[in-house]
Amino acid sequence: RNLKQRRLVIASHVTAAFSSNLRIPEEWTHVGKVDPKEELQLTFVLKQQNVELLEKMLGLVSDPDSAHYGKYLTLEEVSALVRPSELTQKVVRHWLQSYGITNSYLFKKQWFFLLNIGGLHRLPPKRQKDVFNRKQSQPKAGLHLGVYPAVLRARYNLTSADVGTSQNNSQAVAQFLEQYYSPADLAEFMSIFGRGFQHLSVVDRVVGSQGRGKAGVEASLDVQYIMSTGANISTWVFTNPGRHESQEPFLQWMILLSNMSDLPWVHTISYGDDEDSLSTAYMMRVNTEFMKAGIRGISLLFASGDSGAGCRHVGTTQNSFRPSFPASSPYVTTVGGTSLKNPFKMTYEVTDYISGGGFSNVFKMPDYQVSAVNAYLKSMAASLPPQSYFNTSGRAYPDIAALSHNYWVVVNRVPVPWVSGTSASTPVVGGLLSLINGQRLLKGLPVLGFLNPRLYKLKGQALFDVTNGCHLSCLDEQVQGKGFCAAPSWDPVTGWGTPNYPALLTALLA
Ligand SMILES: *[C@@H]1O[C@H](CO)[C@@H](O)[C@H](O)[C@H]1NC(C)=O
Ligand SMILES: *[C@@H]1O[C@H](CO)[C@@H](O)[C@H](O)[C@H]1NC(C)=O
Ligand SMILES: *[C@@H]1O[C@H](CO)[C@@H](O)[C@H](O)[C@H]1NC(C)=O
Ligand SMILES: *[C@@H]1O[C@H](CO)[C@@H](O)[C@H](O)[C@H]1NC(C)=O
Ligand SMILES: *[C@@H]1O[C@H](CO)[C@@H](O)[C@H](O)[C@H]1NC(C)=O
User: Fold this and answer.
1) How far apart are CA 46 and CA 12, in angstroms?
2) Is the confidence at residue 276, as pLDDT, over 80?
3) Residue 82 has pLDDT above 80, yes or no
4) What is the mean pLDDT of the chain?
5) How far apart are CA 388 and CA 384, in angstroms?
6) Has 39 been annotated as catalytic?
7) Phi, psi angles (nearest 5°) of residue 199
8) Those residues with Cβ within 8 angstroms of residue 314's Cβ, 6 or more apart along the chain or in another chain
9) Whole-structure pTM value
């Protein structure tokens, strides 16, 4: 009963402590104080130990040339490695007790460092655009092919035999912002589009509560497509209940993962925020949670975003590109988007101009990508956007891509065409990685885990290089709506390109 009030005491205390360095992004206005009766759920995260060691070890277990490759840790081992020190725990406990909060209120589970209090000192995601989906382009007159499972399976060279066969394999999508998947829509989707390959038509497990609202396009898209490429593989949905418009959901979701010992190997997530709307401390902590997942052998795939290089007004006349997080985390695999050169035929792929990509202003460039990115910067030097628009010392993304244009999705029992966005390409790539994980498990090999170090060592082998087209950016005189352009080999628009499944399977089974 008193907890509510006490929470509010902390809330005002913390707000005061943080307000001095609270950045109010453009497009936001400070309208006043929150109603004191407003309830808030707080997450206290404690400083963890050995984060540098964790990072180093993750590099080793993910590097195919290391003797430690695939030697993943269990959840218990990870927890022991990073456990907050006694001192940290004591300090935070005392601090809370000084506000009358006793142990009985406190989490019995893990302690998290008071580095950041999720949902309190950050601004909510601005609009639905933060869900990377449903850029529904206008239907053009005449025939339209559109993308559905058979198109993807043909383009990426999957045969009817390329379905999951390993019993211990599973994959997941995570949903936020009150998006719910509909079991009936999934069944309908598979009855219409699931011909010609063995697949499942039901989700095996839902973690979290499915709301009663209408099915969301995003949730439908993710589930329907991860189960089409990752066909016949057990699929889970992680769903965050309640309103999240004022709560960044990633930390809660990662905390949930860090309390489950049996998890799917591949997770795809089609949500993100502008890096500049989040605090660095928050992003650093979420990034550490990504490392903790990676060292357990879990692959996290994030959509690169649907605004190309993005645009941020940094001064009255000055603009810069606008990176998106978690796409910009060095410890996730970020998926960009493409479209078919000729949408009426099975042609090669070109850049989808919405494909998110660029350079982080927060995370520095990880070693695994330095030579690929530098090669791009060098070969494109003459035609790059002005240096003031992006930060070449940052983590560059995306890493890989897949079709993201004109998908068919079943929503509220109706097949809907023209659904586009990197939230389509992300589950498609996730399902393919799950298939490869399944083949590895059958051979007694460890799963792929954090893929990037291995992906960059392939140097584009087994991927269809996308070399045509540029993505969008600031509509100003200097760049005139143009961001980066695709080029041979890696580029910050489509990464290394799109998967040629049989070749990728061979390369990643070695
Ligand atoms: C998850 O949290 C509960 C307490 O909420 C704890 O008892 C349990 O040991 C945790 N499980 C793991 C695997 O960390
Ligand atoms: C895969 O698809 C591409 C183009 O769609 C084709 O050129 C190639 O021969 C196919 N097969 C393999 C095994 O790569
Ligand atoms: C589907 O997966 C199951 C294991 O979960 C396997 O026994 C079955 O053979 C698979 N189906 C096909 C067509 O490979
Ligand atoms: C699945 O995992 C369980 C427990 O880890 C193991 O005993 C079993 O042999 C595995 N089955 C297959 C088909 O790999
Ligand atoms: C550029 O990125 C680095 C991280 O690699 C960061 O430390 C630095 O602050 C960024 N510069 C700007 C102007 O944002």
Assistant:
1) 20
2) yes
3) yes
4) 85
5) 11
6) no
7) -150, 170
8) 320
9) 0.88
In 295-421, alpha helices (H): 370-379
- Contact present, 346 and 464 (Cβ < 8 Å): no
Catalytic site residue from 130, 162, 185, 218: 218
pLDDT at 248: 53
**pLDDT 10s digits, 452-506:** 999 999 999 999 999 999 999 999 999 999 999 999 999 999 999 999 999 999 9
The reported pLDDT for the residue numbered 17 is 39
Let me know if 245 is a catalytic residue: no
The answer to whether the CB of 14 falls within 8 A of the CB of 121 is: yes
Atom 8 of ligand 2, nearest CA residue: 157
Spot the catalytic one: 63, 222, 273, 275.
222
Q: For 251-312, what is the HEC assignment?
A: HHHHHHHCCCCCCCCEEEECECEEHHHCCHHHHHHHHHHHHHHHCCCCEEEEECCCCCCCCE
Domains, the chain, in order of start with CATH, read: 173-509 (3.40.50.200)
- Number of neighbours of residue 462 by Cβ within 10 angstroms: 19
Tens of pLDDT, residues 289-338: 999 999 999 999 999 999 999 999 988 889 999 999 999 999 999 999 99
Centre of ligand 3 to C-alpha 164, Å, is 6
Query: How many other CB atoms sit within 10 Å of the CB of residue 496?
Result: 25
Which among 259, 289, 296 is the best mutation to test ligand 1's pocket, defined by most ligand atoms within 8 Å of the CB? 259
71 CA → ligand 1 middle, Å: 24
